[in-house]
TrEMBL record, chain A:
Bilayer topology term: Multi-pass membrane protein
Higher taxonomy: Bacteria, Bacillati, Bacillota, Bacilli, Bacillales
Keywords: Amino-acid transport, Cell membrane, Membrane, Transmembrane, Transmembrane helix, Transport
TM spans (from-to): 19-39, 46-74, 185-207
Domain of life: Bacteria
Statement: the UniProt record of this protein carries the keyword Cell membrane: yes
Organism of this sequence: Bacillus pumilus
InterPro entries assigned to the protein according to its UniProt record, in alphabetical order: AA_ABC_transptr_permease_3TM (IPR010065), ArtM/GltK/GlnP/TcyL/YhdX-like (IPR043429), MetI-like (IPR000515), MetI-like_sf (IPR035906)
The protein's name in its UniProt record: Amino acid ABC transporter permease
Amino acid sequence: MDTIINAFPYLMDGLQTTLYIFVVAIILGFIIGLIVALFRLSPFKILNFIALVFVNAIRGTPFIVQLFFIYFGLNTLEFISLDRVPAGIITVAINAGAYFSEIIRAGIQSIDKGQTEAARSLGFTGGQNMRFIVLPQAFRRMLPAITNQAIISLKDTSLLSIIGIADIMQRGQVQASATFDPLNVWLIVGIIYFVIIYLLSLLASYAERRFDIK
Amino acid sequence: MSMITVKNLKKSFGDHEVLKDINAVIEEKEVVCVIGPSGSGKSTFLRCLNKLEDITAGEVVVHGHTITDPKVNINKVRQEVGMVFQHFNLFPHKTVLENITIAPMKVKGADKKAAVDKAMDLLEKVGLKDKAKSYPNQLSGGQKQRVAIARALAMDPKVLLFDEPTSALDPEVVGDVLAVMKQLAVEGMTMIVVTHEMGFAREVGDRVIFMDGGYIVEEDKPEALFGNPQHERTKSFLSKVL
């Protein structure tokens, strides 16, 4: 009990860092995913190719390698100087972006061609069609898969403790060795992750109901 | 000036030539029904008129715009050419009212009040004023198609293209949709209707075009084409459907 009471404020501090990194990275990741998805679906071969290389490079390598490449690797270049947190955010964003792009691409392709034809026949440009007709419908279909990826990315942030980011994971390590009570510390850390992810899935199912097509 | 002029139109999908050499003129306020067996190219022909299909060769002029000229802004021309689809293609994430107002607001920049007023008038015209707040999936097929017609009319088109508008409908609601189309014809709307409804073609059409194998085989006033077809293929088609 003492362990819990003493460790808790310290862990909550780490949770703040975790959530900050997660929120910023997931938003950036979604933007990256959207751009890459539109590249994948573009009629320009060169854009398809760039998107394909990006997605395969990220999907084909472990998260930790990407993290080390960006934080340790890129920082050896003279013109790059990345702090831990920005490097962590960039890694999570790029990683999530690659997976998001596949989800978004599939979502866009799942929308009936007739929707685009109707919109274009009314004079919508390709961009307006995407924005007002296709994406809003595709987004609803993507929500479960996006939630899934967001949860995976949240858990991936725990790996950022390896480069010394003071997230909840790193705080847990400090507490576990300081208190000699790893059993209780990791139990608490686990519960905190669980609660956050549970809240996230509640939010997602609310959004699914809210945006459901009647 | 003719509403639509088509010269030597050809359309291929890969190696498959669907439209072989189409020449047609559609006058203002004319109602032209296009009939023919499936695979004859009639839907493809219609879809070339607003460039939903890329045109392989030939010239298409719509309301003075040469849409086969790559310099012509097709989005502008499409604002003048309404289209009604076999499967309605209403926007399921928008209410009936929003389905009708979205194009005038986003494409033409109409203000909301004007767009809504106009949409309500159009809904009244198609007999669905009470459905304004409904979503498309809450409507029957016949109601959906009438909303789709209202959606097309909201852009004040110069010509309306109908692509088998009643083919996906239950028989008992076909009449509701045809009644709306007939009313439009009476009001002087220029319409091109790809249809299997021979009764409608005969009663409402000013002219009937019979297509087969990627060609226009025969065209005439409905009473002449149905009463005294000139070509063997027309005769054999009509003998099967009438």
